[in-house]
Amino acid sequence: MKKQTIISMLMGLFVVATQAQEIDYETYELTNGLDVILHQDNSAPVVTVGVMYHVGGKDGKKDRSGFAHFFEHLLFEGTENIERGEWFNIVSANGGTNNANTSQDRTYYYETFPSNALELGLWMESERMLHPVINQIGVDTQNEVVKEEKRTNYDNRPYGNWAIMVNKNLFDKHPYKNPNIGYMEDLDAATLDEFKAFFDKYYGPNNATLVVAGDINMGKTIKMIKDYFGPIPRGQEVKRDKIQEDIIENKIEVTAYDSNIQIPLKVFAYRTPSMKDRDAYVLDMISQVLSGGKTSRLYKRMVDDDKIALQVLAFNRSLEDYGTYIVGALPLGDNSLEKLAAVMDEEIEKIKTELISEKEYEKLQNTFENRFVNSNSSVQGIASSLATYHTLYGDVSLINNEIEIYRSITREEILEVAKKYLQDNKRLEMDYLPENDK
Amino acid sequence: MTNKKMNIMKIKYNYALLLCFITTSLIAQIDRSQMPKPGPPPEINLGVPDTFEMDNGLEVMVVEDHKLPRVAVRLIIDNKPHAEKIHGTASLTSALMGTGTKNMSKDKYNEEIEFLGATVNLGSEFAYASSLKKYFPRIFELMADGALNPVFTQEEFEAEKTKLIEGLKADAKSVSAVANRVSSVLAYSKNHPYGQYTTEESVEKITLDDVKNYYRNFFVPGNAYMAFIGDIDKNEAKKLVENYFRDWKDETAPEFTLPKPKKAQYRQINFVNMPNAVQSEIIAQNTVDLQMSDEDYFPLLIANQILGGSSLGTYLNMNLREDKGYTYGSYSRIGADRYASRFRAVASVRNEVTDSSVVEVLKEIKRIRTEPVDAQKLEDTKKKFAGNFVLRLEQPSTVANYALNIRTENLPEDFYKTYLQKINAVTQEDVQRVAAKYFDIDHLQIVVAGKGSEVVENLEKVEFEGKPVPVLYYDKYGNKTDKPEFNKPLPEGVSVQTVFDDYIKAIGGKEKVEAIDNAIMKGKMNAMGQSIDVEMVSTQDDEFFMQMSMPGMTIMKTVFDGESGYSEQQGQRKDMTPEEVEQTKLTSGVFPELKDTSAFELVAIESTEQGDAYVIQSSEKKKTFYSVETGLKIKDVEVMEQMGRTMESTTKYMDYKPVNGVLFPHTVIQSAGPQNFEIKMDKIMLNQDIPADKFQ
């Protein structure tokens, strides 16, 4: 009983803390379907302008993987009013920084500027949405650049391909089975017309969210947004059908090789629900219990006490349609992958059969609160979170309320969700080995 | 009356319409062909931290930021760089800090920190802690305890040592890690702390006493600074420091003289062979004598930014990435360290364009040295620095970093206040002058780590301004070596015949091998979670049969009767083309090595994962590799066309075991792209009666 009181007192503290850092925002829609989110914070003279398009690696035709990521490159090539190669120079000459990133579900382009260049940022993003130049020179150049990116980030990097091998084997029908960067033969085979058609299909204002965050004046910003984005014509309606996977009936066993490594890796991977599903939040907590920090269960046992692992990992990678939950370890010395697997299984079994302790539960709550406080510490980060919550979760208020979901998860729920998803006949087991072992 | 009224109304109405029209046309009037000009620059408020000093020499600064309920603290000990007695001692000391204190066991310590959702990191010359404000006093106390009262036990020492060694292994094949190590060794030499690196052998030699001594010598307050950032004020911080750091004994770390780095005598390529590389790492470098307080510092920041700073619009990126597509990114860096620094231009490029990339990097360095930078480009670059300066102000840690730099780098107090002024004063002549002085194109060491068998031949042909750039060879630790043998000329007397003879000898000798008329090999492989049966039959009359099947169904099958053949996949039959028949005739048979050698060609010695190998070609498209050391066949590599793109398919032979006194590979791995199929042979039978229709 007493403990309960202490917890609720602590909870009282949490609420106060939360209110102190509430992120204010406004949302509205332009007549062409563009969703707009504004967040004003005048404490530093910095502003971020970002556009999130609801298109990612999973979208597009069969045999044409990697298009959204390819567009992450292509849409920096220039527009009718921005010459080829000038994009980066303009951003840099105005003291800004810019970048873009692509996931399986969405693509995000953004610039961060000193706040006197807000209009410039709006102009650039509206140029990109209205009339980017998509031509053969750009396609050919970026095709080479993407291949180099693949070599740098995957093929020449130790452990660069393991996640790709997991998705390839865990998904059968859903395009999540393809690497986000795509298969190079798909990109090589794609024609200019196919790229243009892809742009027309997915990059209209009605499939995008504009976010402006930082040192702004609301009235002026709303007017500028109307000026620059208002005239962009609405695009095609984007239909999204979720491709259903069949349930995994039998354990999938895979061996893969990497010429850049000497220490093998053992991985269990489970297919889990969409990031929007409450269970996905519970799985985040489970991964924290298993491998978050030095006193987490797997780390403590395998790395610290038994000294059989060099490193352990457990994480829940949630996406819009499905997630993957991954548990893995690298052996220390001569310990076999079988031995690692047996211990991982014991710990997984434990979390499926016994409630986590009250102390572990409180630790989880502290960890997630700390994460929450730190998640909104820059306007660039806030802009990206606002856009993501809106585009993928359909609920901007999560930027302030997501912590409530974590707080409401109980120990019993953790047990139930572990039982539901961490079944050994429904998982992928992968041995990721050094090429030499062949 | 009525009429008039109506008129007025009409006028009013029109006027309203007109107004409306004006407003809309104003909206429509933005001219998007013109880039919007930025407004007046925002005002810059560069805060100054509160500071105080402890009697033991520790200097403390506090940067208040009450936006979020969190506090972070950083302790750095600014010792002069020093050679470790044994390399790896500092890493090991860092790893052992936090594994227990005089007051708490490691488990209790870690549990409490993680229970509070906080972070504490400790190292041999630093400490860091961050947490929610409400837990900060306790977290600070824990950090202080870990930093000042560590216990180093033999058990934890052994555990961390093993982990450190395994970590080194994990990086052993990383091309970029090797390139970085070798470049440091070559720039600073192994006698300088910056050129030293840790190896498995050095870590083995470290003792627990070495760690204890290291901590005692270097974790001292003489050159220590502590910065608080966040939801805290000076009084709160002072109370914490006085409570927990007052007893830190006033000492200063021992100092050593550092050797002065030397420049290379001439421009050169320093090559490190990495047979697993699919990209070459290029680091073109020279050491420089530069400090932040030098007047060349600001012109150099600008010159480096234009050449290859953090933007895609630089000379290097616009050439190597945007124009040529050689790389995902090429960058340059200029160091301004009190003790030793270097200039570096780097790129990761695909194997085929390694030599061209070296030349393009040199061209861009030459360009910034010899051509005045475009006036607009210079203006734009200055604006970039101004903007980035503003953007950094968003993070309160910036104020702390600046204050720290002023102290540690011996900068004037107004260094950051006048930062933008000094940036703005840089001229075109300044840029060219410092580029010519510091980007020392005549003494560049161009470190290249890559796959020798594919890149060295062309690298050796690299010329710049009509002069060859000599290639020198190094091992993975920066030791000079002879040229490795990836392209080594074939030794006298070696021919296809001797390679084949050696192979036959290696597997059991001519007599035994010739006694074999046919072989049946049965095995299994796993694909997509299914077990697949594999059967291969070959005869010395060039007949060949291969089939992959699952219970009840044939997945694929290839048959050759010595003169013609076909393959069948999921019921689809495809006859061999005349070209394929010729190829199959050459390479079929139980031992193609017994055939007449005239159709084969010995093309090279290449280094492979399994050591050097003779490469024998049976056609443009197929190569077979035989180990120089053992004589055994290592692999076949075949070039295939698929969807208009050529790709390599590799068949590796391993796990040789005797069957009737002749060695056969018992594991065969087929790979194409990232796909691997491993066939384990569980039955190999020789000289069986084979039904005549097997090959039909």
What does this structure look like?
The complex is a heterodimer of chains A (438) and B (696). With 438 residues, chain A is α+β, with helices and mostly antiparallel strands. Helix content of chain A is 46%, strand content 19%. Chain A has helices at residues 2-20, 67-74, 87-93, 118-130, 136-155, 162-170, 184-189, 192-202, 218-229, 278-291, 297-305, 337-353, 358-375, 379-393, 398-408, 411-421; strands at residues 26-29, 35-40, 46-53, 97-102, 107-114, 208-214, 252-258, 265-273, 309-318, 322-331, 427-434. Chain A is globular. The N and C termini of chain A lie far apart (59 Å). Chain B has 696 residues and is an alpha+beta fold. In chain B, the strands form four sheets. A 13-stranded antiparallel β-sheet of chain B has the order 21-20-19-18-17-16-28-27-26-25-24-23-22. A seven-stranded mixed β-sheet of chain B has the order 9-10-8-11-7-14-15, sandwiched between helices. In chain B, β23 and β24 form a beta hairpin. Classes of the chains: A alpha+beta (438), B alpha+beta (696). At the A-B interface, α1, α3, β5, α4 and α5 of A face α3, α5, α11, β9 and β10 of B.
